[in-house]
UniProtKB/TrEMBL annotation, chains A, B:
Residues covered by region (Disordered): 199-228
InterPro entries hit by this protein: DNA-bd_HTH_TetR-type_CS, Homeodomain-like_sf, HTH-type_TetR-like_transc_reg, HTH_TetR, MftR_C
Species of origin: Streptomyces cellostaticus
The protein's name: TetR family transcriptional regulator
Superkingdom of source: Bacteria
Keywords (A to Z) from UniProt: DNA-binding
DNA sequence: CTCTCTCGTTGCACTGAGTGCCAAGATCCC
DNA sequence: GGGATCTTGGCACTCAGTGCAACGAGAGAG
């Protein structure tokens, strides 16, 4: 078998070599100042092979979004009726964060690049849009029959993406220092508090346990499943809200169908 | 002065001729099957002039978004402290709708085009993104000092855009039949009910304008700060979340600096 | 009236992304 | 060894977009 020695990876060596060469040139020369011919020359491969692995020059900057999008789609597809939809899409968003957090250095470099190059920003937008549509499609399925089903699905999906990106960008701006998971959890918590309600009928579980925190990780945890009946509901309302509204919120929060 | 006779417009005749020629060819031949040379040949002008009026081939499909974006920016800039921010951005979004509603036939044709051509969808996304950033920038200015100012600004801007687009697209899908204004008002009413609150100390003014929203306004709504000492905080976490995370959420929610 | 200065328009040549086609080499299976 | 198949590379082509310089019409000065 091929030894996992110095070379980058095993499965698609050429692809990774192209990404490495591309980023090296992009960083030292700039994106638009680098031609595809420069990349393939540095990588030592034929120009035609570049476009075999990447449909366009922009794709080489986002080499793993396609896989991540597939993961997210699968994650949403394996969701059951028991899952609370808003929580589910928030968890799906965390998949994207995890991908960024896997390679902080790479992500920060790419962020600097996309911030400067309008063409890359536009490309990133189209990628983000596909994530958002995946979330919205899932939510539409879960909210069919509800009063403003598709409207709410679209708005919630947009809110989740915006919150995720807000936290992600602030993390990237700080050069990947700090815990991205915490920031994203906070941002998604805001969205969840705004739109979410747990489907669990368990009413009484007032406060989380002290927890000796064996897991410093806020449990981003990609493919988690249904086994979280132990949520704690916290709800923000005005004190001047009529009581019936509070009760209504409360009831709908703890799991109407 | 030049008479406003039969011709489309007066100021830039060449620009309009290019738009007309482009759409004629796009509709009968398809976007990607039409080259810039085809357009300029039909319009009877030099190829170089095309790129004088439109930075790229895609721009000819959205000839008036630049102006609309400037209008929106101006509209937001002339806003005073007295305006309720969420209402203001909703009104700003209505400016975009108005532009679409001015030429229903044109808008529907363009919608069909952008729906089919991936490149145009990507371009439209970048345009929409600029609208969203304009809204978010305004909201950030209005929410500075608030607990999660920039987060809330980004999320609200995204929600407004999503709601607007939801209604707009459904109107476009129906060939421009029906009242687009009503649909958008309803969608924006949902957003306003979700995020909005009157900045006025007047407690009893649920919906000032005739937004056509007799909605009971679920107003889930995140946490306001200083001028609302009467909030009740409700927080959603997992039971297995470490306590430090809960405390952190709690503090950041009730607006520490 | 003519010269000139300017501005809008145009043609031309060039770069670079992306594609189709086919040849050359590697691999696998028999 | 002898295909069949897949990957890679090279070549030529289309088309978007840009820089440059020339051309022509209108405005103003003499």
């Amino acid at each position: 078998m091929s030894s996992s020695s110095a070379a980058p990876a095993a499965k698609p060596p050429m692809r990774d070599a192209l990404v490495a060469a591309a980023f090296q040139l992009f960083l030292e020369r700039g994106y638009e100042q680098t031609t595809v011919d420069d990349i393939v020359a540095l990588a030592g491969v034929g120009r035609r092979s570049f476009f075999r692995y990447f449909p366009s020059k922009e794709d080489v900057v986002f080499p793993d979004h396609e896989r991540c999008l597939a993961d997210m789609t699968a994650f949403l597809a394996e969701s059951g009726e028991a899952d609370e939809p808003v929580r589910r899409v928030c968890d799906a968003a965390r998949l994207v964060l995890r991908m960024y957090a896997e390679n902080p250095a790479f992500s920060v470099q790419r962020y600097r690049l996309t911030k400067k190059v309008p063409g890359l920003r536009a490309y990133e937008l189209s990628v983000v849009w596909r994530y958002e549509r995946a979330l919205a499609a899932y939510l539409r399925g879960r909210l069919t029959g509800r009063p403003d089903g598709t409207l709410r699905a679209d708005v919630i999906a947009a809110a989740v993406v915006a919150a995720h990106n807000n936290a992600l960008r602030s993390w990237l701006r700080s050069d990947g220092k700090g815990d991205a998971g915490v920031a994203v959890d906070h941002a998604l918590g805001y969205v969840q508090a705004t739109f979410g309600r747990s489907a669990r009928p368990h009413p009484a579980s007032p406060l989380p346990e002290p927890v000796s925190a064996p897991t410093p990780a806020p449990s981003v945890s990609g493919g988690e499943r249904a086994e979280h009946p132990d949520d704690v509901i916290v709800l923000v309302t005005r004190r001047d809200a009529p009581l019936w509204r509070v009760v209504q919120e409360f009831e709908s929060t703890l799991g109407r169908a």
